[in-house]
């Protein structure tokens, strides 16, 4: 395993280095080895040095040791391109081990973006001033109506609700536009169920996952940054059951494309394989 990796910070003077944490599994070792290429695609405004450090920390999670190194590299690549700091400390994006086929015993690392991550991406586009999201539980009063002034929503939250046990009936997001308007998106139970997966965070954090579903639906109508377009693409490909691939986004058209032949089924990835991602 790699014990220490040095990376030059963009803000540092030549010769100054920031040491990455020691890699503890094959996936994090490959990420540490490829870190300079990974952070080369980090969006403007995101600290590359912090991204590099947190990518290795997140990939060091013990539960990822059973995943293929290639899938961990792909997840790290996509996370860096989207520009969300990974890890439980930030709550924006996570690396999750998922079995490729039930009972196969073969696991891939998948990138999952939490609802705070989607809120962060939403307000980066200078179109939205703020975004809030919540779930409605059985027994809570909830109404949505439309009049000549637009859509309106009323939700009376039960302060005693148990977000881990009570049944969710709806999820919604309310976006305040910088122009002064309001955008509302509501998902009912059947719409949430269509987005729900049997494994991963949906099994352990249904409340958090439900909160991001209306944000994703609403974001398809908002002016998108390249990073939001990529995040939605990653989500849609996973929902379709497709294996994760390293992707890039055209800055002009925000069109998401898959590059190279790198597959999560590969047992290992060389520097030349990573180079293929960006050709």
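Sequence proposed for the structure above (279 residues):
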């Amino acid at each position: 395993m790699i014990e220490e990796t040095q990376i030059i910070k963009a803000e540092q003077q030549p010769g100054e280095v920031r040491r990455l944490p020691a890699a503890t599994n094959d996936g994090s070792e490959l990420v540490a080895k490829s870190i300079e290429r990974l952070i080369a695609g980090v969006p403007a405004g995101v600290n590359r040095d912090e991204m590099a450090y947190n990518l290795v920390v997140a990939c060091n999670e013990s539960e990822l040791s059973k995943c293929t190194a290639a899938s961990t590299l792909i997840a790290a690549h996509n996370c860096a391109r989207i520009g969300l700091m990974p890890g439980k400390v930030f709550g924006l994006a996570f690396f999750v081990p998922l079995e490729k086929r039930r009972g196969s015993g073969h696991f891939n690392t998948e990138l999952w973006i939490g609802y705070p991550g989607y809120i962060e991406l939403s307000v980066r586009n200078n179109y939205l001033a703020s975004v809030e999201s919540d779930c409605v539980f059985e027994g809570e009063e909830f109404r949505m109506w439309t009049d000549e002034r637009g859509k309106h929503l009323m939700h009376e939250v039960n302060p005693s609700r148990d977000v881990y046990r009570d049944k969710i009936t709806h999820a919604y997001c309310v976006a305040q536009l910088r122009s002064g308007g309001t955008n509302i998106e509501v998902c009912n139970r059947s719409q949430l169920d269509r987005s729900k997966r049997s494994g991963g965070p949906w099994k352990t954090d249904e409340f958090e996952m439900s909160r991001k579903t209306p944000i994703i639906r609403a974001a398809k109508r908002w002016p998108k940054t390249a990073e939001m377009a990529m995040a939605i693409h990653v989500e849609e490909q996973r929902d379709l059951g497709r294996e994760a691939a390293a992707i890039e986004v055209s800055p002009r058209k925000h069109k998401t494309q898959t590059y190279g032949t790198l597959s999560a089924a590969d047992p290992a990835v060389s520097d030349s394989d990573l180079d293929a991602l960006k050709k």
